[in-house]
Structures are given as C-alpha cells and as structure tokens.
Amino acid sequence: MREYIFGANILENLTTGMYQDSKVIYREYIQNACDQIDKAYNMGLLKLNEGRIDIWLDAEKRTVSIEDNATGISVADFERTLADIANSDKKLGEDKGFRGIGRLCGLAYCKELIFTSTAAGEDVVSIM
Asked: Do residues 71 and 36 make contact, with C-beta atoms less than 8 angstroms apart?
C-alpha cells in the first residue's frame, strides 16, 4: 500500500468542515451512484431505466447501506480511486459530483465506513 501524508486537520476540514449537516452524506453517496449509472449507460453496461440504487436502513444495528448496479471500480483502480483525496475524473457541469471528496463526508458521522465494489466482468470484491 502507498504511504500518504496529510496535515493534522485535513480530515476534519474535509468532513465536518464541509459537511456540517449529517444528511448530506446520503446526497453525496447517491450522487456518486447516479454518476456511475450514467457512466454505465454510456458504456453500454446498462440499458435505459435499468440503473438502480438500493438503500437499506437497519435501525437496530444502526447501519445504512447504499448500493448501485452500475460500473463498479476495478481491482486495479480501487485503491487509487478511493484513497486519493480531492482527485476526480468527473467533469463540472457534466457529472453530478466533481471534487473527489464527497465520499469522505461519512467519516464525520460514521463509527465505521466501509466501501466495497465489484467491477463489471470481475468476480473480486474490493473493500476499503
């Protein structure tokens, strides 16, 4: 794994500093799922109206899970995509997200934050 060096306040600045309302985490994760569904349509992986975002709430376990059926992230790109902070290939005005930090907002409000992905054509589940 690569070594990352950040200032002492970087995570606070990128989480609670930018996302003071806990409800925005849903917007950010659904927005990311929508971007990937759009990408899946453009790649021919999904037909129109096949895109799906499922949200599961478990009040007893105090968990929320958000899942889409879009592109996924390949094993080769998973670590770089999720570990790089403020780095995104999304285009302002074209994609819903664009800064590469929205996935971090959950760090401010979650006891545990887990990202998993399986890319189309792969049978490996990547976990961070």
From this structure: yes
* Residue position matching structure tokens 């399986």: 118
Spatial distance between the Cα atoms of 97 and 89, rounded to a whole number of angstroms:
10
Per-residue pLDDT tens for 32-85? Answer: 899 889 999 999 999 999 999 999 999 999 999 999 999 988 999 888 887 776
Question: Which residue in 14, 33, 34, 39 sits closest to 105, CA to CA?
Answer: 14
Closest of 44, 45, 41, 65 to residue 53, by C-alpha: 65
Is the pLDDT score of 12 beyond 70? Answer: no
> How far from 118 is each of 4, 26, 127, CA to CA, in Å?
25, 21, 9
- Using DSSP's 3-state secondary structure scheme, residue 85 falls into coil
Using an 8 Å Cβ cutoff, are 98 and 92 in contact? Answer: yes
